[in-house]
Amino acid sequence: ITQSLKPNFWRAPTDNDRSRQWDTPNSLAFWKAADQAPQKLALKEVSVSPQLIKLTAHHQLGKGEASHSSAYLIYADGRISIENHLQANSELPWIPRVGMEMGINQSLSTIKWLGKGPHENYVDRNHGAFVGLHQLSLADFQTDYVFPQANGNRTGTTWARFLNEEGQGLQVVGQDFEFSAHSYTNENLGLATLVCELEDQDYITVNIDHRQMGVGGFNSWSWKAAPLEKHRIQAGNYQYTITISPVGL
């Protein structure tokens, strides 16, 4: 892990998200701001035993309309179990994604997972993807659309591994989670208007999502571009746990 784990509530807008009527960047802007400037309220470390440290972090989002807490259990064998809890006022707009983001060593460019695939899929675009054991290189895992936008998501995942040529790396385990990985940052993806503006970093950006809203698209110029209500993430309370552990070390 080269870039710190952090909560993630925003995704780079898709063509449908940029619909003239729906206009996600404005209608859901609270969550973009929450992503960029969470206010740290508390940070506490407790040594539970010689083999276990517990670290808790609590953040305020916005002016207090929402809050997010993470409890990290860090084991001597390298495992990190993270329990996340989001509390969001029901008056807030729906949420693009509920998850975490991190950066990992760029040598871990082979991606193997148990979940839906092998091609990208979203909660409202996954009937043609099948649960199985899949493996792709990072270059084949991400999808470079002509107009840069959110891409490469996989749903229905039980575990995902990021490995180097020797089969070493890390594994993410969770319950029916979604994930994606890119050679560029989420911020770069959100700002780029041409594929040539996507800048490869010296690390891989990994998104681990409890849930991500659908891509919608009955058309791309009205509110019908938005995902159906059942494929949105309504503001409320969400709790999920992921475990990150070393592989082949």
Total of DSSP H or I helical runs spanning 4+ residues: 4
Which sequence of SSEs, written as H and E, runs from N to C? EHHEEEEEEEHEEHEE
Point out poorly predicted stretches: none
Overall pLDDT? 94
First-to-last CA distance: 14 Å
Rg for CA atoms? 18 Å
The amount of beta strand, in percent, is over 45%
Helical content (DSSP H or I, runs of 4+): under 10%
Given helix and strand content, the structural type is: mainly beta
Largest sheet: 12 strands, antiparallel
Shape descriptor: globular
Give the oligomer, counting copies of the same chain as homo and different chains as hetero. Answer: single chain
State the total count of DSSP E strands. 12
Descriptive notes:
Helices cover 9% and strands 47% of the residues. It is built from 4 helices and 12 strands; from the N terminus they run E-H-H-E-E-E-E-E-E-E-H-E-E-H-E-E. Strands 1, 2, 3, 4, 5, 6, 7, 8, 9, 10, 11 and 12 form a 12-stranded antiparallel β-sheet that branches. The longest helix is centred in the first third of the chain and has 8 residues, at 29-36. The radius of gyration is 18 Å and the shape is globular. It starts with a strand and ends with a strand. The mean pLDDT is 94.
Topology:
Layout: E1 3-8, H1 24-27, H2 29-36, E2 39-49, E3 52-61, E4 66-75, E5 80-88, E6 97-105, E7 110-117, E8 130-137, H3 138-141, E9 154-163, E10 169-182, H4 186-191, E11 203-212, E12 237-247
Antiparallel strand pairs: 1-6, 2-3, 3-4, 4-5, 5-12, 6-11, 7-8, 7-9, 9-10, 10-11, 10-12
